[in-house]
Amino acid sequence: MSYDFSTAAAKAYGNNMINVDASPVRYAIYSGDVNNDGTVDLNDVIQTYNAAGSFASGYVVTDLNGDNIVDLNDILIAYNNSAGFVAVVRP
């Protein structure tokens, strides 16, 4: 079975996706909840910042964009989603 979540925000429970591309229309899930507490907050930003400061690399939880290195891009993802009060939506 195959299901494409990327074509509409309503395809995920709670419509909790963001439009990342207008042409073609693509939606993506939020990232940044490093400690899995259900919200992206200052704790997640600090953990990501500390990992970037220690040049963490490889398959680590603070690598939010999946490029195998924790850097400014990952910090910005965590910070922007924290500023947007991103939280999990559960049934």
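Next protein, fold it too.
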Amino acid sequence: MANPALVSEANLRVDPTPRFDLSPNLFMQFMEPLGVTDSSVEAAWDHRAKRWRPDVIEATRQLGPPLIRWGGILSAYYRWREGIGPRATRKPYVNLCWGGVETHQVGTHEFVDFCRQVGAEPFYCVNFESEGAEHWRRGPDGEDRSAGPDEAAAWVDYCNNPDNRERKANGADKPFNLRLWQIGNETSYSDQHFGLDKAAERTAAFAVAMRKADPTIALIGWGDSGWAPRMLEVAGEHLQYIAFHHHFDSGLPDSPLHGNEWRKDPDRTWEHLMHAHRSLDAKLREMREQVEGRGVSLAMTEGHFALGGRNRCEVLSTWAAGVANARMLNVQARHGDLLKIATLADFCGTRWQVNAIMIPVPGGRSFLMPVARVMALFRHMGERALDVEAAPDGLDVTASATGRRVYLHVVNTRRTRDVQASLGIAGRRILGGRLFTLSADPEFEIIGHQDGVLEPVESRMADDATITFKAASVTAVELDLDEPRQT
């Protein structure tokens, strides 16, 4: 295979010196009952069989998220004790944000069971005193929907205390051992919520109570909208992560990505999609400036395209959007020294194109959207980031390594043109390589379950370490290297 003496002639060169550790949690998902807006949890749960739909389980295993969060806006009025105990006695509640009525058939035990079945770690966003918002504090019949530090601490104890009698009485003798918890969700996004100083003070109060229940848990505090410095000043000693969200368009003026405008000009649509990663990079740089050197990591617990149009815009069903999301996953990897938790999708549902998994109702097989296809492919990732010293025009490349195996994630940003690359690893010899490639016509749309469609195609790398990356493709490359030379 490739001779290290010829590395200088390669046009795709990687320095094998590790730069920083990469977190597997850059590919998380989050599950939230979305009422009449997009039936997600209720659609994923089989009420007749009283279990999770097997096709949803199967699709989620294909996606392979390492971490799944429960709750978003719902957390502002979610009372966790209403979702435990015998299902027949669980009282339905009105979904104050998303509309409709939730059955509470899925609660703490069911969510943890789902995560265990798909190989993911569960974590919760707690009810943060309804974010300080009066419109979340009361249900339509005047019932109290707000919860304070004591209720959050009781949830931690219920999940993690080996001797918790309430959990044992509900059929779980062993603790769930949930290590990660989030305090506050989009708190800064409304002037009807807590102000910054109040939110920081209450975050500290929640953290103290929750840590009293289990000192080993890791906590995420809300820090978007410029809040991070003050949040860390007041509550930083209790927090391991600062959370923010990022919902984005192309970042260019006169975007065609809304409605059906994107169908009219493929070149213009592609240009806007390929530009969108810059918005994410700018957001991450903004957040880095606020937390760098403060002893915490970043957690983008929600992130996705935010486009108007039918069912949140059908361009997100296209492979072109999949390629765009792959570029953003590369951006996340480049910021992986501080970004440790991230996502680019809303996980599962029946309508929104921002979902990773679509659930046909009332029946049919669940299927992965383009964003989910690339997120699953990016699980071919090493433990430590490497530096890409050079790459041919048109290729967006990141590199990582575990031991003597190097992983590349290569996005061909050319819509209609293949790009050839010759690989070289500084000071090392490539012994062999495998490629896992996703490619399709950029205008191809995933609209249902189809076996063999947009599945990674595995191939061997040529002996001379040259690779032709197809137009509009996303490729994970695994390279085996010789032992490093002794100096």
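About the second fold: The chain has a mean pLDDT of 95.
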